[in-house]
Amino acid sequence: MVVVRLSSGGLLLHSVIAMSEAGMAALEALGPPAFAIIPSKSHAGDAGFYKARYPHIQMLAVEALRREHGPDVPVDANVEDVLPRFGIILHPVPATRATEYVYEVPLTGGGRMLMANDVLGNVGAGAPGLLGRTFARFLLPMRKPDVARVYRLTQAKDVKAIRRFLAGLGNIRDLRLVTVSHGAPIRETPAAALKALAS
Fold first, then answer.
1. Are 162 and 96 in contact (CB under 8 A)?
2. How far apart are CA 107 and CA 22, in angstroms?
């Protein structure tokens, strides 16, 4: 899960995960949860938990995927209709079977960050234990940020085109951070890490 404080003071959550009471209290100490992005069907499991805890939170989903979520997933609005008002740019991922965006978010302290979901994976994070390490080995790239392995198998129509797209995002001015749903955030020279995907 990624948490961004918006200029309004409210929190934007990406790919919500239910946490212990201590974790939820730490989240609330950052500010009021105002919006939550449900980036895909496979990342919708805890949306109901958040809507029940925060009835006023706006649950956002990609317009093209809203029908896939079904009646048990609370969706209030489309990401396309809400996020641009906060200066967030939606970059549609090309050559993929399911609609996915990489979100370009202005940082309150200056610079920009990117939030990717399943299209981009990174090393350095995974669930504990043998099962977690095995799952991460299948899901994530082995040595550096890249199109996630499982994405290549299940969603990508043209991996080279997706890599070119991600490399192009490396040209965003003052890029400070790239987050992914699977793997560690890219903090060190994120622009260079993305541009390297073109080679």
1. yes
2. 26
The most distant pair of C-alpha atoms in the chain lies apart, rounded to whole Å, by: 46
pLDDT digits (tens, 9 = 90+) for 146-161: 998 888 989 999 999 9
Q: In this prediction, what percent of the chain has a pLDDT beyond 90?
A: 67
Which residues pair with residue 106 across a beta bridge?
112
E-assigned strand segments in 73-174: 77-78, 89-92, 101-106, 112-115, 120-121, 146-147
Closest CA to 61 of 125, 117, 140: 117
- The pLDDT of residue 170 is above 80: yes
| Domain annotation for the chain: domains and CATH numbers | 1-83 (3.60.15.10), 87-199 (no CATH)
What is the C-alpha separation between 124 and 31, in angstroms, rounded?
A: 28
* Structure tokens belonging to residue 145: 């940020």
